[in-house]
Predict the structure of D-malate dehydrogenase (decarboxylating).
Amino acid sequence: MITYRIATIPGDGIGKEVVPAGQQVLEALAKASKSFAFEFENFDWGGDYYRKHGVMMPADGLDAIRGKDAILFGSAGDPDIPDHITLWGLRLKICQGFDQYANVRPTRILPGIDAPLKRCKPEDLNWVIVRENSEGEYSGVGGRVHQGHPIEAATDVSILTRAGVERIMRFAFRLAQSRPRKLLTVITKSNAQRHAMVMWDEIAVEISKEFPDVKWDKELVDASTARMINRPATLDTIVATNLHADILSDLAAALAGSLGIAPTGNIDPERRFPSMFEPIHGSAFDIMGKGLANPVGTFWSVVMLLEHLGEFDAATRVMQAVEAVTADTSLHTRDLGGTATTAQVTAAVCALLEKSAVPAANAA
Ligand code: NAD
Ligand code: MN
């Protein structure tokens, strides 16, 4: 029996609702398994912690979670604290501290979901967006001078390093190679951003030579938004810089039906540090504390967490339970046009998992 050590960090807003729901799903899974268990440790970092201590997480916080097998995260974002403080003080501190340089965002239209693209068949939209997660436009380099004066100036400098681009390209090509279509689209903007993005393109060509069986093409980021809508079936694996992929993946999530469904993994592919899994949505101030949050994005993140641990059978079982639940429109939350609550959706997924217990011999 393996015991996986999981850090749960609900953070703010609906993170406090969906992370406990994700933990319940993992507990239901473990109850039905003879081969693995989970040991959870919860960390109360976020906006409330900031109000008490003046920081989003303690200075030595990373040390408290360094030894975990994975992290399940909710959201950082509080109505009364500026967003750059909550984001940089918690989520980015973990992503950058643990060099989780690959942000992976699968997108599919799940059964029962009424997606907005009427000409798109569910099987036409099956993407994984790989977001460079450690540098680029969000490197944090920049500053402000002459604050408050008419000559005030400010910069956010985008930094791409050869090592950083090579490792994300290699990760994306490898991921594309592992998927049935072996198809990669490299998103660029080297027409307007004529230094770093030109290097990005050059490195894509270099790394592609290591993967002769992967078909790949290049698309400008603005054109790619139209392609996602007009020709979704021509895309499979997509790699883009931090900012470009941030925007494209919210579009992808919307095209798949709701921001409330979409998952992500902040991965350290070298496994030097724990990886962190989270729904892509934020704190959702408009619905927080009401029990209306869709927990599916968190459950799908739990699937990615299980895959990362190598528990592929368990991951498949959770995904099947989630798809059975989305297929039933009476279990849709308000973002999907339904009336179900977070608790009802969670209970339905847990009930399916407890029913579908597998013998230990079947486990990974
Ligand atoms: P948001 O994702 O919180 O909300 C956007 C809209 O989608 C809202 O109408 C919300 O109700 C809805 N929505 C989102 N998730 C939902 C769910 N699970 N179920 C049902 N409806 C859902 O984005 P925002 O409004 O831009 O940001 C709010 C706060 O969250 C900000 O402070 C922002 O910085 C933060 N944020 C954090 C993260 C993160 O920690 N990863 C990501 C995005 C936003
Ligand atoms: Mn985003």
